[in-house]
Each structure stands twice: as structure tokens, then as C-alpha cells.
Amino acid sequence: MERRIVSDYGANYGTVNPIYGLPAVAAMAAPPAASNHGPSAPPANMFDTVPGYEGTVAGGGGGYLPPPMPTAPMPVPEQAPSPPDWHIPSISEERAREAFATYVSSNCCYSSGPVKDGVITNMESFNTYRYRLETFNESRSTEWTQEPFAGQPVDAGVQPAPGPWQITAQPPAFFQEHKQTIRVPYTSSVKNCHVCLGMGRNPCKTCTGAGSKVCWVCNGSGFREGNDRCSHCNGRGRENCSTCNGNGSCQCDTCHGKRQLIVFINLNIKWSTEKDDFVAQDLSGLRVEKLQKVSGKELFKDAQYMVYPVMGFPDFSVAQASERLVRDHQVKYAQTSRILQQRQTIELIPVTKVSYMWKGKSHVYYVYGNEFEVNAEDYPATCCCSVM
Ligand SMILES: [Zn+2]
Ligand SMILES: [Zn+2]
Ligand SMILES: [Zn+2]
To answer: From CA 41, how far away is CA 194, in angstroms rounded?
Structure first.
């Protein structure tokens, strides 16, 4: 058998494969990645060349397909209205104390002394903004897939396959994650199974095709102690292989014994929301990561096909972050996927720094977010459990 190495896309020579009897010129040139698959992976020339799907490989892993350029001009994003008046909400001493008590009681070994006897000496508000940009997009990729052939419709070549972005799919509601797989029309064809070479059966792996194996009772001698014939194998020294019932071969797992496979291209569509946050620096001393799991007061919300960066917001770093992230998302997602909707919000997250005295020493805790989360890293009355 003559084999030639396929070196590149678009080469019109391939492997001469006696199984499929394809002339060399019709065999598809495989992308280099196809050679990385295991021994049971289908040979590249099992798949026809489908215009518009040239880079498609078995097992997925192919790159995402860039959407075609829009035929209509992109709509111009609407100028965001300036944010409404806002005020910094401050919490009462009572609320701060209550949050502190809840926090301490949820930590198994914390003593409640500082909550009961601590005296609040100062409360300062440090309010911080969180800008969030979400981009809801649709991406598409393709892969060659195979199934045992059991009479499914075969339509390859009946007419040209529609392009990956010409196939219609029903998107979910905006910002709902979803996946869908669609069999690309006019790509299904029937091939002999490459694993069993069209036989429907493969040599049994347990007995390597012999149909029998050494008798476990007499270890192959045919005799038990002395000259007694082994009753388990009737003196044969071998017994039937139970995996293949003595046949020496088993039904092929790949084609389920059908001898043929139907091969076709699947289009995998994925809708996902990509999210980026920016938190404006504050001077409270509370670590910014702490703010990730809390919500704030929504000051501004804007959702449309493509958002325009927020303008004129009092905190300049927020406006800057908006401009940067809107640009980043367009660069990142408009090329490999189709942007369906964007949403941007600005939240005001209240952070209150509470200073208190307990047993003659000054300590600090923070109350933050709509949830009144508490952070007290220097809590003075922890015991055993907090020692790692
Ligand atoms: Zn035996
Ligand atoms: Zn066997
Ligand atoms: Zn097979």
C-alpha cells in the first residue's frame, strides 16, 4: 500500500486507501491536527470535502468560525443618557451592630464579647462603583461526526451544503446560556466502518481471537492432582472465552455490527454571556475581591445591540473602564462570534468602615453591599477553630 504524507490544506492528493477505494485525487486533504487522534480515529479521507467546511475535523476542537461581514451597516449605538442624581446611602449604627452580630454568630468559635461590649467610636462611608459589561454572543463551530448506519437519509451532494452561518437556529432569550447541535444538511454519506474494515466484527481482545483461553483450574495441563482428568475443561487444558462465547470475535463497537457508518458534519452553536467587571478603587482598606459576591444599588443600566461607552459619569475611572471594556469586547467577540446584545450597569456598593473599642484596644470591621456582608479580619475574640 502506498502512503503519502498530506502536508497542507488544499493539497489535492491524499492517502490511497484500499478500504474506501477512493481515487487519490478525491481523497480529502486533512488538516495537520487530524493526525493527533488515537488509532481508532477515522482516517481523514473518510470525510468528503464540503465547500465552506474545509477546516472541519472529527472530535471537534476546530476553531470557531468567524461570522460573515454584516451586509447592512452596523447600527450606530445610542448615546447613553447621563446618570440620574445619586446619593450615598449610609447605614445606622444599629444596622452596623446587627450585621456584626450576625457575622460573629455565624463563625462557630467566635466569642460574642466584642459585639456585646465593644463601643463604636467611628463610622465612615466609603462608597465604591462597580461597572459591569456583559456581552451576549453566539458562536458556531463544526465537527465531523459518525453513527452506525441504519438506513438514515443520505444526502451528501444532493445540493450544496448551506454555510455555517446560513443555517437558522432559534436563539434563547438574551443573556440565557444555551447550546444546540444541528446536523448540517447535504453532508451525510455512508462509508465502510474504518475500525472493522467493513466486517462488522473485530478480533476478541480477551482471547486475542483464539476463542478459548487457558483453563484456570488445571492451568492448561488437563490434569488435576495425580492423574485425574480436569473436570472443568474435560482434559482439554483450555476453556471457551466468555467474552466472545468462543467465537474469537466480537461485534464492532464503532458501527454496532452494521459494517457501515453514516458520516456528517454537526454544527455546534453556543450562546453565552461574557462578563467583565471594573471596581473603582476606594480608600477604605477593604480588599476589592470581597465585593465580588455582593450587590449594590443600581445607578445606571443600559441594554442594547451594541452599547456606547458611558459618558460624563462623576467618577472618571468608571468612564475610562467603560470605554476600554466596550472596545475590548468588540475586538474579542465580534470577530469570532456574533454579538446579539450588550448590557452595562453601574452599581454603587456601600462600604462602611466601623471602628470600635474593646478591652482598651481599637479594632475595625466593614459592612458592605446590599447584603450587609461583614469583614472583620482582626476580630479580637476568635479561638481554636480559627487556628489552621
Ligand atoms: Zn482444566
Ligand atoms: Zn474471546
Ligand atoms: Zn465496525
So the answer is: 9
